[in-house]
Amino acid sequence: MTEDTKPIDDYLDNHYIHKSNWLRAAVLGANDGILSTASLAIGVATASHLREPIILATVAGLVAGALSMAAGEYVSVSSQTDIEKADIEREKQELEDMPEIELQRLADIYEERGLKKETAMLVAKELTEHDALGAHIRDELGINEISQANPIQAAIASGSAFTFGGALPLLVTLFLPIKHMEYYLYGFSILFLILLGAIAAKTGGSNIFKAVIRITFWGTVAMGLTALVGYLFGVSV
Q1: CB contact burial 79-106 (16+ within 10 A = b; e otherwise)
Q2: What pLDDT score was predicted for residue 31?
């Protein structure tokens, strides 16, 4: 198959926007897993000289965070889905009640995008004849297969990613020396965040350096503030 006859789907698959939904949920989950769990562990580590309280707090934070992340993502995306469905139903009704107005509305959209008035109306008529609802959903409401919300996919990606991210600081609390544990946690967590930022940027086609700087800065701020709380309220157990 030559380059000219290559299916259009092959070209579309090369665009990063197709990965945006699951990539956003996965990166958010993994980032939150690393940062939340590590920050919690650092806060306890600065207030305790025993390994058991640190591990307990880390595991509790990991489990609670993963469940919360998955549930929150599901509820959030489900709300978006409900709005999309409501708009689609409204659009169906409008197409039945006032097809001429909807046709003109579609033509106006194409004209605003740069088509001549006659061409815009011609395109609107042909698309209406082919799939009126699909044309309005895509061009008037801005809903398509790429942007359409998927609650279950987002919840699974987010919860699983949080679990994976949170497991990394947990390994540090299990196997590294208890002395200076907060520094080990900070150092390894920053390393984990850098790797995550680089992988996410590479997968999404964005600037790796900017992603690493952004994730490192905010990770340092979060863990530093948590460590400060641990020092201020440490009970030295």
Answers
A1: eeeeebeebeeebeeebeeeeeebbeeb
A2: 84
